[in-house]
Design brief:
There is one protein chain. By secondary structure, this protein is an all-alpha fold. The longest helix has 18 residues.
Amino acid sequence: MGVTGSGTSGTPFEVPNSSLADTVLERLTATYGAAADPQRAVSMRAYMKDVAPFLGLTTPDRRTLSRTVLRGTAAPVEADCTAVALRCWALPEREYHYFAVDYLRRHVRQLSSGFLPVARHLVSTVPWWDTVDALASHVVGGLVAADPKLTSDMDTWIEDDDLWVARTALLHQLRHKETTDTERLFAYCVRQSGHPDFFIRKAIDWCLREYAKTDPEAVRDFVARQRGRLAPLSVREALKNIGP
């Protein structure tokens, strides 16, 4: 294929040729398109603040249709995953983006550290919490867990002017539990503690509250030391389930 996207530096990259992606996209567009509900699509688009048009598929129906689309298809390699994701992202309707996120989550172990530029493209293209959060915690987080050298990229992402890239850095350890790099997690929260945007502040709240399930004492100590820098809501959310 000759479709192009953009990497972390804005350099164009080619969508890999993939016969598997050809099959998946042909089935996907036919199956999803036939099930579209234009009336529901209007309300779904409004609920998601007009970030993208919708087909009007509920999550349970969409996932049932996805199983039909994928029935009998081969296990993908990284090039197939890349092609499926980028080709889905090039389609306007949001359900195709959801399909791509689910596909990447399912096959994240097939992805190498070289997939990170593609993940950043997905995070920063048509961005909203509905795709970014799953990409952050399941895809980017999986890549970093498999290749700790990528933590240096996260150190760059947390400084990014794109709030969705910074949010991804904050949330990438959300599922790491006992393997969380606690020092880095807390440093990221401090680094963005004064950010004016709601979605950055909520990411701080979320990752602290989640990590408190694993190490409540560490979170209590962090909050005690940084209470003056953290927003009051972040303090409340961090201690919500563990007490002061």
